[in-house]
Amino acid sequence: MVTHQNRLHQDRLRSLAMNDEEFIESVLSIRLENVETSGLDPKTHALVRLGALLALDAAPASYQGVVGVALSSGATLDDIVGVLIAVAPTVGIARVVSAAPELALALGYDIDAALERLEGHGVDG
Fold first, then answer.
1. Which of 20, 42, 50, 94 is least surrounded, with the fewest CB atoms within 10 Å of its CB?
2. Alpha-carbon Rg of the chain, whole angstroms?
3. What's the rounded Cα separation, in Å, for the pair 20 and 12?
4. How far is the CA of 74 from the CAs of 16, 95, 123, in angstroms?
5. Model confidence, pTM
6. What is the pLDDT of residue 43?
């Protein structure tokens, strides 16, 4: 039995395979319509986008925007850090170590300042 859900993903795959410009523009646009087009709920959509930014070693400003959307969509701080941990085996530890301080800043946590405070108290990292 073919359901609406089956047809929807088939239509989307066919549009991508055919390089349907209108569909691709809607997918690549930075509008909220992309959330609807993806078929994902806003929280999942934001977390997936965060995973992609981490994989690409994106600029810190990129994290700020997507973290804000994720949080306003119901993601928790643990969800956001969980994305970093989830992508680690795929993107590699060097990328994760590089991204962690930037993601922390987007969450309002300055790791460098925290480490300096720990060092000032005689605690080795």
1. 94
2. 18
3. 10
4. 30, 26, 35
5. 0.69
6. 95
Count CB atoms within 10 A of the CB of residue 52. Answer: 14
State both tokens at 15.
């549009």
Cα 23 from chain centre: 22
Work out the mean pLDDT of the chain and round it to a whole number: 84
In angstroms, the first-to-last Cα distance of the chain is 58
Q: How many CB atoms lie within 10 A of CB 53?
A: 22
Distances (CA, A) of 18 to 4, 23, 30, 57: 21, 10, 22, 30
Identify the burial level of 17 via C-beta atoms within 10 angstroms of its C-beta, where 0-12 means exposed, 13-18 middle and 19 or more buried: exposed
Q: How far apart are CA 45 and CA 61, in angstroms?
A: 18
pLDDT tens for each residue of 41-96 = 999 999 999 999 999 988 887 888 889 989 999 999 999 999 999 999 999 988 89
Q: Are 23 and 8 in contact (CB under 8 A)?
A: no
